[in-house]
Amino acid sequence: MKIAACQMVSGPDLAANLVAASRLLESAAAQGAQLAALPEYFCLMGHQDSDKLACAEELGHGPIQAMLSRAARELRLWIIGGTLPIKAEQPDRVRNTTLVFSPTGDCVARYDKIHLFAYDNGRESYDEARVLEAGSQPTAFDAGGVRTGLSVCYDLRFPELFRSYNPCDLLAVPAAFTYTTGEKHWELLLRARAVENQCYVIAPAQGGKHENGRRTWGHSMIVDPWGEVLAVVPEGEGIALAELDAARLAQVRQQLPALGHRRL
Fold it and tell me: Domain CN hydrolase: where (predicted)?
């Protein structure tokens, strides 16, 4: 299966972001991708955290979900829809949600980001808990025989989540890593998750300078189960494209059967 990680530099204009995402999905399909993934916050990088509240959707309704469903159906793609704000029980909170759409346009999986990012180095300060309500349920789905585990951005630092999916063929990590943390930890952690779980990793990211002044690291990539980076987009809009090879997956697991050696 050919898979595509779509990198964006989203802004505060929802309609413009949806057009950009559609363009990337169309390009991925034209290049032979059967599964494509968008980055975290692909639909909105607002001027402030609370901007998410204004465009939050009810599950199953809204322009963001309609675009993802239509693109999946028309392009015959599995789409991992980055994240979008889904309404929470509390009116001043949203869930940071990944929705997966099958080639028929049906929503087949939902994952709400479990680990909420907080960071303060004296110059940059983030606290997702001000607006987000954390999820609690790991979610995996089957994409035409490819067992795929879902996560979002900061989840990458918590290997126990990924172990709960084992065995999976593919792990998805849509993200909007800050430039500061991404420069030091992004590739390191992605390759570690691939190696320790002996599976492919697809990591579509935000990558560039955003209208709100934030700079994200980018480097959307696809990593194989031996930890090799197969494709990467350093910065700016683009697509990392690679083949998920079932034979390669089996070879790695056979020559080093670490998954069968676990004791804890």
Answer: 1-246
